Write the structure tokens for this entry.
Amino acid sequence: MGWAAISSSGNARCSALPRRLAANSTSIPATLLPPLLVLPESKIYRPNLCAARSAPLPVRQFLTCRSITAFKRFLIWHGTCAVICKRVTNQGNCCMITSPKNTGVAGPPNPSKDDARVRPAVRGSQALSRLLQYPQVRKILDVGSGAGEHAAMIRATGRSAVMVDLAPPADHVGDFMEWSGGYRHFDAVWVCHVLEHQPNPNAFLRACLDRLRPGGLIFATVPPIKNQIVGGHVSLWNAGLLLYHLILAGFDCRHARVGTYASGPGYPVYNISVVATAPGVPIRLPPLRMDAGDIERLADFFPCPVRQGFDGRLPDINW
């Protein structure tokens, strides 16, 4: 695929698009830019000539490609959350990339998605790897713990994990919605392939929020939307819907992490994970109508640009 940056004189030079346009800041470090890049101000930037190589530059870029569709596929493949904002036909297909407004749940610098302490092929593997990379997360509530495989891996690292499930070997056997323990006690709530089983996801997520200390994290993983109806799965999900639900439940998703992935090599992509924060002060949402217009009213609470009808199959964000 041919890529080029348009210069103010209309000339173009081929360059390789960096693997991550939006790394861990609201602007792009000069070291991540292509060899020649023109920003909206029509100024040419060459990273090797920058006085400060780490100096941040604006997040918007103009790049040419053979088709808008190919451009979108390239962004999704490389895990970049972007919006196609403009198309200029007199210079080919010219696209403006906008990186997420906010990036990075406060957490570790280690960008690895896989942790050696997480057994391969376990559901939510990358989300669990993320959890284990937060040194401040010591007390975890595992809701819908099943056979306890996630809790076992968490406990093996010296952390504590409290399991709640409808059946043994959970520490608390019964309906989580009827459990009164753990109020504002935990550093993290682990909810892996559980939300799709909840008849009232909003009430369930609010109950999870009540168990988190201020600044605590929820690690929520759901399966992708499918047409087959199976027992116990009473709701359908994609990354956008998961963020939407978390926002309505009171979580701070402005700096959320979002990842979509397989449980291991040779496995289908069956995990959509979001890491969001329990705010220290309850978030006051604007008045909502539960109708058209609400997405725009909530746009500032998402970690990426959204609007009515946006595609909820989001690429990775801060993942």
User: Anything to note?
Assistant: The two ends are 25 Å apart (CA to CA). Helices lie at 68-77, 125-132, 149-155, 201-210, 239-249, 294-297. The CA atoms of residues 229 and 235 lie 10 Å apart. The first strand starts at residue 4 and ends at 6.
